[in-house]
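Notes from hallway chat w/ T.B., transcribed later so I don't forget. T.B. wanted the structure written out for a chain they're using in a teaching module, and asked if we could keep both sequence and structure tokens in one place. Agreed to drop them here.
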Amino acid sequence: MKTREYGGPTNVKEPRQTLPRESFIRGVPNGVANHLRMTQAILRRLAILVLGLLLPAVAAWAQTPAPSFTALNTRVIDDYVLPRFKRLAEASGRLAHELARTCDGDAGALAAARKEFSDTALAWAEVEFLRFGPMAEIGRAERFYFWPDPRSVAQRQLNGLIAKRDQGALDPGALVGKSAAVQGLGALELLLYDDARPITGADETARYRCRLALAQARSMQTQADAVVAGWQGDGGWRGRVLEPGVAGSPYQSSEEPAADFARALITGLQMIQDRQVAPMIAATSNPDRAPRLPFSRAQLSARYIAASVRSAKALYETMDLGQKVPKDKVWMPRWITAAFSRLANDAPAAVEDIGREKPAEDRARQLRMVRFHVENIRKLVGRELAPLAGLTIGFNELDGD
């Protein structure tokens, strides 16, 4: 058996330090015994006093309700979500109207239709990342804009429809049941901005192309109207968000939809990074290959990224995520506000004039700044401000970060 240096065995436990027992006290002199009894009494009273102070605090902590995000959710839906989807529905309605005039032979309607297409595309930029609620139904996001499309699936499938002159595709209700690649803004851009084969031509193929473009616009209008209706009314998503726990609501607390809004913001920033900044960065290392950017055929890429940034900034400000930061982190919301201001200028400038000469060093510098600001806004919101506000973010749908 091992022994300590002083000779005792190592497996002998040290005696616990406890209050002296009464049997022990009886064996000591009276003066010492009285002192020990007095010490015991004092310690018992102190223990009762401490428990009396702690128990109400523990009970109050246990009964403290979880923070409510109802006001935040109401503000986001009424001041941010609904106005933007209504704008999309109105723009797509005007687009369908101008395309109907174009197909009826109005000579000046094509220019008006292209203008309304621009308005619809920019309205879409402001809601593209709101991929929950009614937008998550029947794959509406992909049907509204099938992008990215690196293999040109939309062009090939459109060519197939046009070659067969598929009459079913001319019905907006039937079109929604076909491939997402032949629906929405991406397919319509291919038809509307093809000067070699204009939809205003007099031949049968041109007339079919025009009626197909009209069906696409009307289908988008129907989908946008359905999203607005899906947020409003009895049983709509507005009620499901603001009344968690009721029948039909996927949420159990007000924190869950608030976290969805925060995730949407993070997703929107990631989409700017992946779909607009990353292709441009890749193009700087391979200048002979033109980058694939949203709505480049319609020359809307710079305005599109500007609308995306503007909408992400508006959602951030509407949520007011920076209001509960401690003093040592007040720099975070200030930095984010300044970063959004920089992005409003740098992001469009980085992608403007695609196909024209621009000093490579200038574009590379702008792209680096855009990437820096987007990435760090996303990290600060997801890792700092949202958790400080009481929101659990977890993974976002695009990159799992």
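Follow-up for T.B.: Residues 30-63 form the longest helix (34 residues). Might be a good example for the class.
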